Amino acid sequence: MEFPTLEDTVGNTPLVRLQRITAGRNNTLLAKLEGDNPAGSVKDRPALSMIREAEARGEIEPGDTLIEATSGNTGIALAMAAAIKGYRMVLIMPDSASSERKQAMAAYGAELITVTRQQGMEGARDLAERMVAEGEGKPLNQFANPDNPLAHYCGTGPELWRQTEGTLTHFVSSMGTTGTIMGVSRYFKEVAPQVQIVGLQPSDGASIAGIRRWPEAYLPSIFDASRVDTVLDIGQHEAEQHMRRLAREEGIFAGVSSGGALAGALRIAERVENAVIAFIVCDRGDRYLSTGLFAPGV
């Protein structure tokens, strides 16, 4: 008997029906629990995909140094994948990231470099590019790497179609690198183009981990606006409120971007009838405890 490895446990995450948060109008709300991946987020999928595909092309090999800019979840997933496969992983991130995220990366053996909150992810990406140009390591570059959405084209999309037995009508996802929504959309535009693809971006002034409104110069090159049917702006308070609703009304302990995804799904549900609406629960809530977002009385 050949036993599975940790890599084999990535993907095929549960899709569960919400029971107390109702959408009315005979709509069904379904949550895709990506926190059940081994490193705790949807980013486990592209992290392994980017490394596997680069290995297959002969671009990297165990022992190499990999460099990546990240706001958190991709870094944790890459740190796990590097530990599995034997790479030195250097991660660059804003120092505003939660302590749980930083400690998780370090636990897997990754080396962390931080930029200031003001520099943000744009500054982290700039530094990663400079380090690669100076020969300090090899890039994966989740923002421009087609192997990022490939993971969702081959995995997340087909899983959703199988799990809903072909009844899915709407797919809702936060947009950060946009890898999730691009890969899932590509799948459905080919297989079931009637499925509506809904993307979420932060309202002006909102700071929601995992959801970005990129300046034009930093827009991920993997993003194709034509693959998103509807874009919704999500406010910070709205995302945090719905994050807490997921935990307190459904027992789904997740992060802020997942609250934003629920908020978006509920907005869609107000407009339609007899729909099957699935949204991505990107990660687990335990990596946000130090932020105070789940504090008693909040």
UniProtKB/TrEMBL annotation:
Entry keywords, A to Z: Amino-acid biosynthesis, Cysteine biosynthesis, Pyridoxal phosphate, Transferase
Cofactors (names): pyridoxal 5'-phosphate
Domain spans labelled Tryptophan synthase beta chain-like PALP: 7-283
Identification of the protein by name: Cysteine synthase
Substrates-to-products reaction catalysed: O-acetyl-L-serine + hydrogen sulfide = L-cysteine + acetate
Provenance organism: Modicisalibacter zincidurans
EC number: 2.5.1.47
Family: Belongs to the cysteine synthase/cystathionine beta-synthase family.
Superkingdom of origin: Bacteria
InterPro entries for the chain: Cys_synth, Cys_Synth/Cystath_Beta-Synth, CysM, P-phosphate_BS, TrpB-like_PALP, TrpB-like_PALP_sf
